[in-house]
Amino acid sequence: MMYHVTYLSGGFRVKGYLCLPNGFSLPVSFLEQHLQRLYGVSLTVIPLTCPLPQATEDIRSLQLPAFLYCRGGINRVGRVKPDWVAQFANQGFVVFAPAYRGNEGGEGRDEFGGAENEDVREAYRFLSSLPFVDENQISIMGFSRGAVNAAQTAVQIPAIHKLVLWGGVSDLAQTYEERMDLRRMLKRVVGGTPAKVPEAYQARSPIHLAGQVTCPVLIMHGTEDVQVDFSHGLNMYRSLQELGADVIMHTYEGYGHHLPAPIHAEAIQRMMDWVR
Description:
It comes from Ectobacillus ponti. The chain has ten helices and eleven strands. The chain has a nine-stranded mixed beta sheet, sandwiched between helices. It is an alpha/beta fold.
């Protein structure tokens, strides 16, 4: 079962997706009451149509691993993919995917790895507060730009179990140079060019955070990725290796940013087998 959840982050009402593993259900009233206790205000929970089979079992007596999915893109580009959320949950995880502030009716403004990262930390807090989530088994994955938010969160919350960077940006200044189509947006949301505000780009670059990551890391990247060059993943992998980190890399030879459906399903299976 999947739900569209409103929660609080930095004083803003923001949106996210919560999905339970195949076969489990949870009353909307339970989630609304839980949010009321957590935040002290009334917040909405909307049940969504989910491609998983009809839920039959109450989840509240269990302790399950959880998975935070940080979406890519910005605004309407790269929105949370509900089918991905369901596929992750179908591996036996409680999944939460923040939409980031300013998206899907949420308040505030997405800063591409800036203040909106509080939305991810608050999503972790929400997940860890759920009685059916094992707070020692909460992992995080960032896809594309989401790698920035995922890496920041893994540094800020050392209790994160494992970190996955999938087709992820590792150096935002490099992205600025490579993606002429993104320069105007980056100057607007980051506050200038890499030459003008280098510290802002470094704060949004996982490769500059590598020395502070303490959990195991999986890097996944296609060698023909033209949206986030393969060198982002490879350089992040080598940096973590040099630092003595617990890191592995899944390379998808000949594939781009998005994998064909059968390869995508295999990639999810490999990823979740590693996360467990």
